[in-house]
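Consortium newsletter contribution from the modelling node. Members have asked for a concrete example of what our holo predictions look like. Here is one, prepared for the copper (II) ion complex that several groups have been discussing at recent meetings.
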Amino acid sequence: MIRTLPLLALLATVAAGGAHAQEPPKEAAKAAETFSAPIKNAKGDTIGSLAIRDGANALVLRVAIQPGGLPPGWHGLHFHAVGDCSDPKFMNSKAHVNHDQSKHGLLNPDGPDEGDLPNLYAAQDGSANAEVWSETPLNGEGGLKDGDGSALIIHANEDDHTSQPIGGAGDRIACAVIK
Ligand SMILES: [Cu+2]
Ligand SMILES: [Zn+2]
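And here is the predicted structure:
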């Protein structure tokens, strides 16, 4: 809900300025911010890529994993709080992005936290392609590219979207630095 605040501030500004307020050029306001990074496994090998486009009201991310990159099946996918993939268990990336003490889980009545994303499905050959969206912004207040960055983490198991702290998703098996 953090990302609605700038919009409210903008509306307040426009209302205060009345008819004299200068509207920002539409093209500039709509330009999506982009970010891309390699996704690496525990050995430090690149197994795929992360591509983010962040628009005015939503962030859209694409995950592309090459054949052999992941064990087949469902895998939890989250934004973790620190942009550090340097240890093999990816614990340096800390817990989920969560600025307001929400509970974990897209299906949790007291959730979700800002790191929660749908599961990723890897095919029999270990490849995966997905496009998902999030309300968590790339830049600005509560953004992924804050002082210590963030990480996209892929887990060994699927996220049940309800239980604490990470939906039973298990080990962290792949990581991308967002900084
Ligand atoms: Cu996670
Ligand atoms: Zn979570």
